[in-house]
């Protein structure tokens, strides 16, 4: 009997072959721009592990330099352990209404954590196990040069630090359906942004790469492309110890909601300025991810939608009459959070600007950029003493109507800002500061 291989549906993601943006457009129209019926009862798939390979424990609890000028952790294993813990580790215990949970330094859509982190070092290629704070040794050879060869724009000097960020393809699909693929690109953008922040704090000039030979990197990591794919590679030169600023240690989602109280305009402007800085990536975006603010309770700013001017940082009125609440479907959790929040920051982008140059890959690249900006807003809000909540459950059509932009610019991610209600969710840090007790 003759068998034929199944034909993937035309809106399948990721597309089987490069189509110059046509497949990405179809996916976005059908799944990526449509708020899915989220199944909150559906779980996420288990994190990756490699049974049978050697497991190398990292110093626990992860050690961080405590005070400016205080002694930095000396051993390379401690430095690497601190980097990985603050990137994707289990760094706190949260007491939530749903019980005790493991908290991470980065946010993740629905707490699915589809991202996995691999590190290529002089002593080998390893996969990071967040819950065990340990490395799985996959290959004892130094594969950094091979990783670099697969990059579209390799760095001029051989990098010391090479982090590969992957995404498990089915990690969040049970809960979000095919929309989960776009969420995964946002999520891995958050991780790439966190890696850039951490490596910059260690005195390096890191770069996040989104253009590379996927198959080659997948082969080096031993990935089954139907189950896990490389989304980003972050490289940097020799680094000192990471010196995390306080917001890195206390960032978390304002899970208890917001006090319906006003936020002063300068605090909002400082968050936006931090979020809008240049992103160190291997490609220039043809059109930037512009930031918009839908204000509700900002002292000194009229309610309504404002665009942040990239040159001056000023907020220019765009449309009036809208509040963050109008960005979410009625009667859902987003509507209430939107009502309480002082404002919503909308991270926007233009899909059409990148398809001619990058093809379908641009879809992931643009959402990855939005994830980097979302990660920065979370940290900047913590620095400003504000609560923040990244939201993918905005009604994109409603949000785009408020933006009043030309048809191609669309909402990629929303972040609600405000004063977190009460004292927030109780949490216990699992990190240890170095230096004198
Ligand atoms: C891309 C992205 C989208 C998110 N969307 C939502 C959302 O729509 N609604 C929500 O309540 N939380 C959302 N979150 C926040 C996560 O639920 C939260 O990060 C996760 O539960 C972990 O908690 P933590 O941020 O306090 O560490 C999102 C996070 C990310 C990174």
From TrEMBL:
Organism the protein comes from: Streptomyces xanthochromogenes
Region (Disordered): 1-26
Protein name in the entry: Nitroreductase domain-containing protein
Domain (Nitroreductase) ranges: 102-237, 251-419
SUPFAM superfamilies to which the protein is assigned, alphabetical: FMN-dependent nitroreductase-like
Ranges of Pro residues composition bias in the record: 1-12
Low complexity composition-biased segments: 13-24
């Amino acid at each position: 009997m003759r068998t034929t291989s199944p034909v993937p549906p035309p809106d399948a993601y990721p597309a089987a072959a490069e189509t110059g943006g046509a497949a990405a457009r179809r996916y976005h129209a059908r799944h990526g721009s449509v708020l899915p019926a989220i199944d909150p009862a559906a779980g996420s798939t288990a994190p990756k592990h490699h049974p049978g390979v050697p497991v190398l424990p990292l110093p626990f609890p992860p050690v961080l330099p405590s005070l400016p000028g205080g002694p930095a952790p000396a051993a390379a294993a401690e430095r690497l352990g601190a980097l990985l813990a603050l990137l994707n580790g289990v760094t706190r215990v949260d007491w939530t209404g749903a019980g005790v949970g493991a908290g991470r330094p980065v946010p993740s859509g629905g707490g699915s954590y589809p991202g996995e982190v691999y590190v290529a070092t002089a002593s080998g290629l390893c996969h990071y196990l967040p819950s065990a704070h340990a490395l799985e040794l996959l290959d004892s050879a130094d594969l950094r040069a091979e990783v670099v060869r697969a990059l579209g724009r390799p760095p001029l000097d051989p990098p010391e630090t090479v982090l590969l960020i992957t995404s498990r393809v089915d990690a969040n699909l049970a809960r979000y359906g095919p929309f989960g693929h776009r969420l995964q690109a946002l999520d891995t953008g958050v991780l790439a942004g966190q890696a850039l922040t951490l490596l910059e704090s260690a005195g390096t000039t890191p770069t996040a790469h989104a253009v590379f030979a996927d198959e080659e990197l997948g082969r080096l990591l031993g990935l089954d492309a139907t189950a896990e794919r490389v989304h980003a590679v972050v490289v940097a030169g020799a680094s000192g110890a990471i010196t995390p600023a306080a917001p890195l240690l206390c960032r978390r989602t304002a899970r208890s909601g917001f006090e319906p109280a006003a936020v002063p305009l300068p605090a909002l402007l400082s968050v936006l300025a931090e979020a809008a800085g240049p992103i160190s990536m291997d490609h220039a975006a043809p059109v930037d991810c512009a930031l918009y603010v839908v204000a509700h309770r900002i002292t000194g700013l009229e309610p309504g939608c404002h665009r942040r001017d990239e040159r001056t940082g000023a907020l220019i009125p765009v449309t009036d009459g809208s509040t963050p609440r109008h960005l979410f479907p009625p009667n859902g959790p987003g509507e209430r959070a939107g009502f309480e929040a002082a404002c919503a920051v909308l991270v926007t982008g233009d899909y059409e600007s990148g398809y001619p140059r990058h093809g379908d890959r641009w879809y992931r690249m643009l959402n990855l950029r939005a994830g980097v900006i979302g990660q920065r807003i979370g940290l900047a809000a913590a620095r400003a003493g504000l609560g923040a909540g990244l939201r993918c459950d905005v009604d994109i059509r409603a949000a785009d109507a408020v933006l009043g932009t030309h048809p191609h610019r669309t909402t990629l991610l929303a972040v609600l800002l405000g004063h977190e209600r009460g004292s927030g969710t109780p949490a216990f840090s699992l990190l240890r500061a170095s230096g004198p007790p």
